[in-house]
TrEMBL record:
Source organism (scientific name): Skeletonema marinoi
GO CC terms, sorted: protein folding chaperone complex
Protein name: MYND-type domain-containing protein
Domain MYND-type per the UniProt entry, residue ranges: 524-563
Gene3D superfamilies on file: 6.10.140.2220, Tetratricopeptide repeat domain
Species classification: Eukaryota, Sar, Stramenopiles, Ochrophyta, Bacillariophyta
Length: 584
């Protein structure tokens, strides 16, 4: 399947999700489609980017709409829809009562929105073709201009005055704010999910709150005791820096969690559970002391969220939420079904004694639901129900497919690469001894199903380029004799047949298959030769194998991106703008 064919398929799937108002899923599909296109200025890429802007607007992500629309208009200055959507977003930013924007900022958004709408109308008038869609867009722009004409300086002044008297919680425009503003009834601490096991999730909630709030304090004159002035405490920049440090550290451990190409492909947004997974598995005691995460969260959010509230938000632990997310309202009856993305149902079933953790993890990675996968991995790392992580990963369904095989079979979400890396990293983290660590990772990566297929071989048979590339990076094998024993003759024939098909599929696929072949014990990871003596292992990740120090040195330019020394660029704005708080 060519890149354009894959992009078209993902575009259509995204359109289906959008019509169902599943905006996050739609954005995931469209992001995968864009990643498969070499040119972001092609007509198909422009259409996909335009659709994404529409989803951001429907999700009330107005600043993201402005940013993405501006980038699109740089490539296509006559794209009327982007002008109209940017104008709409700026209109919302100007009049949004939940925002902490100043009077000057609101007036600037107001003027920019008027300019965008007028430019869009001029552009539509200059088009000689008659199109019902263009006429509808023109009417929307005219209605927006009419609304803007009624918003004068007094209106924005009143908003600013109201903000000065508002509470801290009114400034949280997110899932956190929704929880806090609904006055829900907490369930309290549950013995199956004690606060001690939710430490990292609670910190993640607090860190997100710090990124989204601005506190106002009064400065009191020490002599007179009267209020002398009012000032703002904005913790967002420090929060961005800490978030970036956490994720940069996460990318430095073996089996890096991010590609080294930069932040444009780092999806999905960092959720509470994904951020907690990074905190739980990536940060050493030295890093905790250096970053001072707990101290910062206490300082920034102690006046906003209590420990009980952070626990209730992290676990969706409210009576009203549990009642709403029940089978009586069409929600999941099985844990495997809920792990596809409904976190309130996951916690409801966990409190009720859910035991099918392996099935839940399998379904989460099969459908690319990263939040669900992170939730299950976190609970297993905390030994819920006394379960161990690696044995649970290796539990298989009726076809013999374990969790890694389900991740390899994810053809649609675009997040199979992240699922695979999370599973490998979790397996590596679960053991301390280097020998046991290597065996745990090899077993999770290379265990075959009932038909003799390993996850890497399954990804080859599906021509799933994303998983093939990831398996090559983390050192998966097409067949691992140490784990699965001698390969049956019929499987050898099938294996060779699959490999022969790749000769006509282009250089990229051929390179990936060669890389997968090179990860076997008998071949050097750089030159692909089988030496007479035992291969040397990389001292950091124990995955790459070399016949000599010369090959290891030559291979380091590529290997460093998947080894423990890998680093990524620090892009604070991206990290902060891609944080997703929990919602009821």
């Amino acid at each position: 399947m060519s890149g354009e064919e894959f992009a078209l398929r993902m575009k259509e799937q995204g359109n289906v999700f959008y019509r169902e108002k599943k905006y996050d899923d739609a954005l995931c599909c469209w992001g995968s489609a864009l990643g498969a296109l070499p040119d972001r200025t092609s007509p198909l890429a422009i259409t996909i980017r335009s659709n994404s802007i529409m989803a951001y607007l429907a999700s009330d992500l107005y600043e993201r709409v402005v940013k993405e629309s501006t980038l699109l208009l740089e490539d296509d200055p006559r794209h009327a829809k982007s002008l109209a959507r940017r104008g709409t977003a700026r209109e919302k930013l100007a009049s949004n009562r939940g925002s902490s924007a100043t009077f000057q900022q609101r007036k600037e958004f107001h003027n920019q929105a008027v300019e965008d709408m007028n430019t869009c109308i001029e552009l539509l008038n200059s088009n000689s073709e008659t199109d019902p869609g263009q006429e509808r867009l023109k009417r929307e722009c005219e209605q927006s201009l009419e609304r803007l004409s009624k918003l004068d300086d007094d209106y924005y002044t009143r908003i600013a005055e109201n903000l000065d008297n508002s509470s801290n919680r009114d400034n949280i425009d997110s899932g956190l704010g929704r929880y806090l503003s609904m006055n829900l009834t907490p369930l309290g601490e549950h013995p199956r999910i004690p606060k001690s096991s939710m430490r990292f999730e609670m910190l993640a909630v607090r860190l997100m709150a710090a990124l989204e709030t601005t506190q106002r304090i009064s400065v009191v004159n020490a002599k007179t005791g009267e209020e002398a002035a009012e000032t703002k405490l904005d913790y967002s920049e420090r929060g961005k820096d800490i978030l970036n440090q956490i994720l940069t550290t996460a990318a430095q451990v073996p089996f890096c969690l991010f590609p080294a190409t930069g932040s444009t492909v780092r999806c999905p947004p960092i959720t509470v559970h994904l951020l907690a997974f990074y905190m739980r598995t990536c940060l050493s005691e030295k890093a905790w002391k250096e970053f001072k995460i707990e101290e910062f969260c206490e300082e920034a959010t102690s006046q906003i969220i209590s420990d009980d509230e952070a626990y209730a938000i992290a676990t969706h632990g409210y009576h009203e939420v549990e009642d709403r997310h029940s089978p009586l309202h069409g929600h999941g009856k099985a844990f495997a079904q809920s792990a596809r993305g409904c976190m309130p149902c996951c916690f409801r079933l966990t409190r009720g004694g859910a035991k099918d953790w392996a099935a839940g993890l399998q379904q989460a990675v099969h459908f690319g639901k990263i939040e669900g996968a992170a939730f299950v991995l976190n609970r297993l790392l905390e030994r819920i129900d006394g379960k161990s992580l690696v044995p649970t990963m290796l539990e298989s369904d009726q076809a013999g497919c374990n969790t890694m095989m389900h991740a390899a079979n994810d053809m649609n979400s675009g997040f199979s690469w992240l699922s695979i890396r999370m599973l490998v990293h979790a397996a590596s983290f679960s053991t301390v001894d280097p020998t046991e660590k290597e065996m745990a990772v090899r077993t999770v990566l290379n265990k075959s199903d009932n038909f003799g297929f390993t996850p890497a071989l399954a990804s080859c048979s599906l021509v799933n380029k994303a998983t093939m590339e990831t398996f090559a990076q983390v050192g998966a094998r097409l067949h691992d004799k140490r784990i699965n024993g001698k390969q049956l003759s019929k499987m050898v024939k099938m294996h060779n047949s699959i490999m022969r098909q790749f000769d006509s599929m282009g250089e990229d696929i051929a390179n990936l298959t060669r890389a997968l072949k090179a990860t076997s014990d008998e071949l050097c990871s750089y030159c692909g030769r089988s030496p007479e003596k035992k291969l040397l292992s990389c001292g950091r990740c124990f995955l790459a194998k070399y016949c000599s120090g010369v090959c290891q040195k030559k291979h380091y330019k590529k290997h460093k991106f998947v080894c423990s020394s890998a680093k990524v660029d620090q892009d604070l704005d991206w990290f902060a703008s891609n944080v997703s708080a929990p919602r009821p």
